[in-house]
Amino acid sequence: MPVIRPEDLPKAFVEAWMNRDASALAALFADDADFVNVVGIWWQDRTAIEKAHDYALRSFFSETKLIIGRVKLRQVSDDVAVVHARMVLSGQKSRDSSTAGRRNTILSFVLQRQADGWVCLSAQNTDIVPDAETVEARDSTLTPRDYRT
Predict the structure, then answer these.
(1) Distance between CA atoms of 48 and 33, rounded to whole angstroms?
(2) Do residues 104 and 126 make contact, with C-beta atoms less than 8 angstroms apart?
(3) Strand 117-127 relative to strand 42-43: parallel, antiparallel, unpaired?
């Protein structure tokens, strides 16, 4: 189903996620779209986006709940928009099959208007790390840091 207003894309994304429907999720993206996940894995077309989400939604995200928080629309032109959406993810399976803690993220979407609605050209998912302003790399370990305190 096409996205009629750009600010509705996060809702369509969550709906596909909660239905564990990677095909519907990928259909929100252009054929040559980009998606960068929270650890920097970069999927560079709709097929790769669908394959990655299909695997995740059938495994470690199979029992997750994804909730939308604040959504902000920036209308760049009549045919281009940027949407940021705060989200909360819970129920992720840990490697030992226990349930991991809650995660807060911001999904950023760049959308373009097409004949039948809006399609996502690029998305990036960023974890919100409490009490940190950057990540410090030492001995191949990344540690959240806050230099302000």
Answers:
(1) 9
(2) no
(3) unpaired
Torsion of CA 55, 67, 110, 123, to 10 degrees: -30
Taking the whole predicted model, whether its pTM rises above 0.85 is answered as yes
Residues 120-144: tens digit of each pLDDT = 999 999 999 999 999 989 988 988 9
Of 35, 21, 16, 5, which Cα lies nearest the Cα of 107? 35
The whole-angstrom separation of Cα 115 and Cα 76 is: 18
Q: Give Cβ neighbours of residue 23 (< 8 Å, ≥ 6 apart).
A: 50, 54
| Percentage of the chain exceeding pLDDT 90 | 86
Pairwise CA distance, residues 23 & 50, whole Å:
6
The helix/strand/coil state of 119 is strand
SS3 15: helix
pLDDT band at 149 (very low <50, low <70, confident <90, very high): confident
Q: Give the Å distances, CA to CA, from 37 to 34, 112, 124, 146.
A: 10, 20, 6, 23
